[in-house]
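Deliverable D5.2: sample structural annotation.
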Amino acid sequence: MYFKGVGLPEKKTHEVTINFYSKINPDKIISKNTSRCIEFVISKADTKASYWPKLTNDKTKPHWLKVDFNRWKDEGSDDEREEGDNAMSLDDMLRTANDNKLSFDDLDEDQDDSDDEAMPGLTEDKDEEKK
């Protein structure tokens, strides 16, 4: 895949050729231009093929290439699942947990706890006593 663009505010030209691990479907490439970066969703040509061990066939990972773990799919996950299905992201789980506030109403306040023991008094330093 070949990409060329101009970054702001320096108006610096960026150009890259990405050699993918295997063939991709160029008709299914989706791009999103944000204020900080450009994101691509790229589909493999053979959707039934096994997972790629890496994105490119280069020996080293380019420093500018990042993994979006919010979109990560494990090898055993269901590829057919759409976002609208019953899938819940980590953000959704945390938001749900935050909405279900914990209640301490069912705790027994009369029950003894090791934290309730009296604290020992402060002792003076032996050097202080000699003065």
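Annotation notes: The mean pLDDT is 77. The radius of gyration is 28 Å.
The annotation will be released with the project's public dataset once the embargo ends.
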